[in-house]
Design goal:
Layout (H helix, E strand, L loop, with lengths): L3 H47 L2 E2 L2 E2 H7 L2 E6 L6 E2 L5 E14 L13 H8 L7 H8 L11 E3 L9 H9 L5 E10 L7 H4 L1 E4 L5 E5 H5 L1 H5 L3 E6 L13 E3 L6 E4 L3 H17 L4 E8 L5 E7 L28 H10 L8 E3 L2 E3 L5 E3 L8 E3 H6 L3 H11 L2 H11 L22 H8 L8 H12 L3 E3 L4 E5 L5 E4 L4 E4 L3 H17 L13 E8 L15 E9 L6 E8 L8 H17 L14 E3 L8 H10 L3 E5 L5 E5 L5 E3 L3 E6 L14 H9 L5 E4 L3 E5 L14 E6 L7
Parallel strand pairs: 4-12, 27-30, 31-33
Antiparallel strand pairs: 1-2, 3-10, 4-5, 5-6, 5-7, 8-9, 10-11, 12-20, 13-14, 13-25, 15-18, 16-17, 19-22, 20-21, 23-24, 24-25, 26-29, 28-30, 32-33
Helix pairs in contact: 3-4, 9-17, 10-12, 10-13, 10-16, 12-14
Amino acid sequence: MVSRMDKNKKKKQKNKKKMINPNIKIANLVLGITFIIMMILVIRAGVLSLSTEVDGKNLKDFAASRTTEHETILAKRGTIYDVNGDILAQNVYSYTLIAYLAESRGEGNYVKDKEMTAEKLSTVIDMSKEEILALLNRKTSTGETPYQTEFGSKGKGLTELVKDKIVALNLDGIDFIETQKRYYPKGDFLSYTLGYAKSDENGKITGELGIESLFNNELTGTDGYKEYQKDLRGYKIANTKEQVQEAKDGDNIYLTVDSNVQFFLEQALENADDKYDFEQLNIIVAEAKTGKILGISTTPSFDPNERNITNYLDPNISVAIEPGSTMKIFSYMAAMEAGVYNGDETFLSGTFTTTDGTVIGDHDRNGWGVISYDRGFALSSNVGIVTLIDKYMSRESLMDYYKKLGFGSKTGIELSKEVAGKINFKYETEVFNAGFGQGIMTTSIQNIKALTSVANDGILLQPYIVDKIVDSDGNIVEENTRTELGRVASKETTDKIKDLMESVVLEGTGSVYNMEGYGLISKTGTAQISSTDGTGYLTGESDVIRGFAGMFPKEDPEIIIYANLKRPTPNTPNALVSVIKEVVENVSKYYHIYDADEPVTTTDNTYTLENYQNKDVASVKATLEKNGLTVVTIGNGDRIINQYPNKNITLNKGSKVFLVTNGTKYTIPDMTLWSKKDVTTYLNYTNIDYQTTGDGYLTSQSIPAGTEYIAGQMTLALTFSPKYNTNE
């Protein structure tokens, strides 16, 4: 039997148990929540440790970006050469001098002996020992030694030569920041063909015109990179591993252009520009047997180094004009190939009235009476070609033949922004006009292409200007040769056309081009300039374009020339004649091209240069001056290391010859009235810092003649002005 005391005891224990149960539950709840939170944290940590991406961020990349530096190694842009290997466009390097000061870089990797370093550097760069030492001893705002220091403007833009001299000092902690720029050593030379390339803020060079633009991918190459660990201040951690992928340099491009022939063109255009007044003059010279472009030039032009350019279209490639009567070559060929041409057949010259009442006239409206079609070609009779088309030819036959020669289509030459021109004509008057080169549009390069058929017995050739492309390892990746596009005429036709072109020079409209012994044959032309609103033609005396299409020697042509002159003033129509004769004479001498039947007449007013490299400056200068040339020596050396123009170039007496010597001190010459081309030629062979204003001929220079130039302390300011006022 349970006593009352025992019951009460059990009751108290039961009540006590009831009183502590809430506390236990709370404790258990807290423990449970804590456990869950800990498990979440553990799981989260596990996820973070195993995952490569969290909250949209790649953890590996995020960590690497805070400790790894990625530097781009720029590929060297390929060089552009002429056919003989002369450099036309290249990358040049300039350097910024830096000195590492932090001891953390380790022994031999920082400037330890500052006195000695300052003393030696002062012998190479234009700074005193004290100036250099002050930079090497400088402190940060917190009194610490900086990781590195630069040397201001006098330590920037250093040439390869200066850099090599500093490297030869073998100084600890001295390094360079390398930058590249595009450089054109011949200045205003082949400018529209080469185009230009320029650097962006990251040092990347991109072509924007000409060969530089069209072959930008090939020239650019493939950039490399360098990766290394950096410290909190952003500097490379010494003795850490680098990962390097070397850059693949760009391809080198060799043009078909011969710099000597190009010089003949540039010189002839400059001489014409000096003597005559006109708006523009363009010329192309091609190798007849291959279609190679040997030279191509236009004036006005520009210097790719300065990019002082106002017209971004190459007049020989990117601008189509009405060709005028040079088109009669191909209209006559069309008649011959159609089997309807009889050169002895006659017509009444003077004027011709179409069925719609349009009167088409010869340049002499009175005409020459009844003459033969052969004679009509020599006299450039518009009526002759019109009556020939009217009697025997259809619109379709003329159109088809023009297209067969390549007119109305791009030639595909390796130059940027080529245009196709236009040969659309439909109505009777339009067809007649097309026959003598009016109302249709052609380019200079199209005319060169069509003329190859005359020079090659009826075989049409592809014109080209890239000889080969060579990669940075020396492998030829592309090479161009003579490419035949098919037969467009019989040999009988082209022989007859050459006879007719000869008659133009001997007794026709091109008699001013007659050069005894050279075998030059041609067709001349004059085209009116269309009004900008398309309503007709301008009527001013100067609103014409004079054209020349020719080749030599006649019996076996080796050289083809096409040129045109825009807006010559009425009193100076012979600018084109003077250019063609000068070019023919110089190219003939250079390639030893002579007519076998009779001797070539030469002038006593010229002198042919030799190779003067490694020769004594004084003796060469004396010889050249004795022969009537003006000698400009560059540098204070006694031996010649370079020259401009090159050997085998024939110069008119009074022309300048630049002799580059082995001396590096430059005395500023008196360049007053020098052409801008001559001034930049001189300066491009020096390290003189200069600025130019205007175009034409030098009228003022900021540094007096006879002053020795001091690099880093002087800038030569040059002002140019036109020699003649074209508005008068």
